[in-house]
Hints:
The protein has helices at 2-61, 71-95, 120-134, 137-156, 160-171, 173-177, 184-200, 239-256, 260-287, 289-294, 331-343, 345-348, 356-376, 399-415, 419-433, 438-461, 475-487, 494-500, 506-512, 540-544, 546-556, 558-569, 590-593, 604-618, 629-645, 649-667, 678-712, and strands spanning 103-105, 112-114, 308-310, 320-322. By secondary structure, it is an all-alpha fold.
Amino acid sequence: MIKPATTRNNRTTTSRNIDRQTRPRTQHNAFARIGATARWALAVAACLWLAWCTAVGPLYWNDSSIANFGALNALFGILAFAIYLFIVVVLVRKAHHQPALGWAADRATGERTPRTLIPRSWRTAWRKRAATFRITKTGIWLQRISACCGRWIVRCTDKRWKIALVLVIGWLWVPTTLLAAFGADLRSQAREFSWAWNQWTGLKQPYIGFFSFAPMDIYPTAHYLWPDSPTYLTDQHNILLTLWYGSTLAVSRYFTGSNDWGIVLLAAIQWLFAIGCIAATLHRFLNLPWLARNEYVDFAHPERGGRFAPTRLGRPERGMRATLPSQSAHAPARVITILFFLLCPLAVFSTISLTKSPLFAFAFTWAFGIWYELYATSGDRHAPAHGAPFLARFHRLPARTFLAFLAANAIMLISAKYAWYVLLFEFVLALIADRRHWKVYVFALLVPTVLIHGGISMAINSGIIISGDPIESHGVQLQQIARIANKAPETIPESARRKLAPVFNLDQMAEAYFQQDADPVKSSGIQSKKVSYRWRSVTPESMKHFNEAWLETVRANPVVAVDALMAKCFGYFDIADLPYVSMDYYVYNDQVTSNSTWIKYYNANWRAWVANTSRQISRTPVLGWPLHGNFYVILTLLIGAAEVILRRWRTLAWHLPLLLLMGVMITAPANNFERHMLPIAFCFVFLCLTFWRDSHARVSTANTGARACTTKD
């Protein structure tokens, strides 16, 4: 009688132990499935947003509405969604070194092997022909040429100064034949500084008054923001950049009688700055200099020797030279990356375009390369010491690199007002992902933000300069109200009309509405402007009711409100949409061809041919997409979705500011304005290289672990 009881108790105890062991594993599997589902849901949401923008694009090209969304639009959306999701799936599977089209089970062994569309007989025949061709004279000759070209490509780009020299040679035609590229913003900044200089020298000028027209009225800036004591400098285009541009042009007028020599000087300085930024970033991503600094000799494995090679084989008296790390980029990647910057109009025209966005983009790219170095030198335990651009130990940022990081962030703050949002966002992400470099982030991110942005805020509060009008940040709301006033004015409630009356003239607002750009609605510009925004008489008390009036108007006609939102931003995410303002605009426009003194006569026909040729090529269907900024925005979003699925959180920590810049695009005044997409376009090639290296590192880690387990067994 005892044995059965003992057996029963043993079975019960054993079952309890099994339950205790399996329960945590089951819970872990459940959480893992939930996490994987959430990550894929986020990626699907990104694809749906891109597909939606593609589907509604034809509607807004014809000034239509989503109320007319039909079967053809649905077909466009479904096709775009399938393509975008397929790209994400391919990226994820390639990151795991899996085929894009799934797996097939071997009937004999039961193992899963890659499935391909090419029959096995064709693949076998191709391998035999390729092997036969390699041993022929032609094959051997081509292999030698390929190897020789690869060595020379790497040798010509293995130093920062060599990359800079390549960029100088490739971009030299831009400042020498085109001189400079600019638009109306540069003239406005010159006008601001000129009026301020006149005030400082004692010249009487009109200020606040109904019949007066000061530079602040061009944007315009509400009069309630003007201090009582006259001042003519504003933070509309960032005050520090205005002072730099305006003072240079003032000196040019003093010595030469025109702005043109100053414009050429500013363009040449920006051209040199662009070369320095791009060369430094290319050097970091292609050559991984932190590995060269710290790991010429692997002391943990002395049998591997140092990373040195003879300067020339057969001539030992010439000594040895340090070789590049094995993880540096191969020749094809170097060629593709450098050709993008040498040939793409987005980069080429930006080198001499005197407006805030290109300057911000080059500084952002410079900082992006330093972020990669911080990411790679953080001492990640899970990164392999070999086979990926990581150091096994934590390394401090060199003083020279720290100063470069500080300068890049400062120039971003000087060039664009929204830069401080980007830097604060980066600071928070950096402290979460890489606490070991916290001192770098405090002194290179937080301190310049506080000093520069805080100093500008103090100058605004003290009345030295005038703040930019808050109406600039209400572009979406303005477009929604204006479109409803234009398309369906009868739906606007009377209470909303009363609240809007002190701020806007609804009739003028409806007449000035243009779905691509919110500037006409807020009365920006100097040429025959529509006074829809009552900037002369509006008060802070009137602005308090603006949001209430906007909400009532949107509730009264939500369909038209959605139309206004989508028409204002869909082009940034619709790959088939042509840019509203492309970078060739700054090369050839009225400000250059009519309002300059002598620049308009310098290579006038060549300037027109360059701008028109670039525009024609970019308008070519499909083939012209790589010349558009939204092409890189879309692919960046898809790569980010793949990184989310792959749980590359530390990589995402320094890629997420690119997503924040996409939010800046949506709130920008214009739709598909290419200069707002420059930072993402410049960083895209480096994003691809990082994605490939991270995938290679994960595979190397897996292979190392498998070999270790095999050895242990």
